Amino acid sequence: MGDAIQKAAHLIAKKQKVELMPFHLGISIIFTYMEGGHMLNDFWLILFMGIIGAVIGSITNAVAIRMLFKPHEARYIGKWRIPFTPGLIPKRRAELAKQVGKIVDEQLLTPETIEQKLNEPEFRSEMELFLQAEVKKWIQSNMTVTEFFEKVHIPEVGLKVEAKINEWIGQKYNSIKDFYSDQIVKESLPVEWLDKIENKIPEVSSYILQKGIEYFSGEAGRYRVKRMTNNFLAERGKFGGMIQKVLGNTSIEDKIRPEMIKFLTSPGTKDLLNVILKDEWNKIIEWKWAGVIGKFSDEQVINQAKTFIDGQLDIQMIFNKPVSVYALPFEKKITDVLIPGIMDKGIMKIIVCIPEFMKKLKIADIVRQQIETFSIARLEMIVLNITHRELKMITLLGALLGGLIGVVQALIVTAFPT
What we know:
Blueprint: H1 2-16, H2 22-35, H3 42-66, E1 76-77, E2 80-81, H4 88-91, H5 93-108, H6 111-118, H7 121-140, H8 145-151, H9 157-180, H10 185-188, H11 191-217, H12 219-236, H13 238-247, H14 252-265, H15 267-284, H16 289-294, H17 298-313, H18 315-319, H19 323-327, H20 331-361, H21 363-373, H22 376-415
Antiparallel strand pairs: 1-2
Helix pairs in contact: 1-2, 2-3, 3-22, 5-21, 6-20, 7-20, 9-17, 11-12, 11-14, 11-15, 12-13, 12-14
């Protein structure tokens, strides 16, 4: 019986070669027991060979997993490179990076997958709710318009808008001047405007006369008449003195002012002024615009226009008010109508541009470059963190298979002794 077991053990060692070298240890132990006269029974033989097989299987898989990454660099004995160095992944990192980039570009992150994601109702709903929440924060905040633009890196927006408006006024004035210079006023203005201005002439006459009456009825008018009469009499010499003696104690301005006021309140004066203004207006509308514009300096006109528009708009006041002042009345329309509409149009535009955008983006090159920049230690850590449980299960599976193989071999040895 002992000779048969010894022959079987030699036969098993020959078949397993290097992979089952630990069996030699087990067989040696068996022989020692046999030589000592202690015969192992079949149960202990099967158990022992199963344990040895499990150890071999687990160690083999653990070493194989370790050889994926280790060593990180090639090892040499003199000029001779040790086989299997560096590890598989360090050795094939460039090819791995290229293949991963290709897979991501062609299979994972494709225009079709992105379009599918953008068209998902859940995604659209989440994006709409997100945008509505963010916009409501801006609408209801006390942040001024100036502060809002500063947040988006546009400082001093009020001054910039004023500068743009002033620049536009200057450009517009020059273009209008160049366009209308050779045109006649009457031919370039709408008929309605001409009629309206002509109909305003009586009102202008009444306004001028009323202001004249108010002026000469007051102290300022009295002082002006007195100075004018004194200058008149002084220029006439003795004749002026004679007039003053004739009037006696009565001042000449007291005689003139009532007559002036009477003249201004006379209906005939108003008719005369209407005729004068109408005649002047008829002359003006026959002018060319070059003659009208020539009455004023360009700088003066532009500055007057800038002052008027700036005063009407008050840009600084507009931009120093909170955003909520302008946006709050339109909150519901913005959140319920404007945002969904903009989002739908934006998504459609993005979908159209995705293929060309991704083509220019070159996803495969980005992934490849990123993987190639990873250190082997970092790449190893990433893979192990992701596959830690699976690699552990592979090691245990090696132990299980090795144990089963050992048990089967032991059963064959005990069942067919030679």
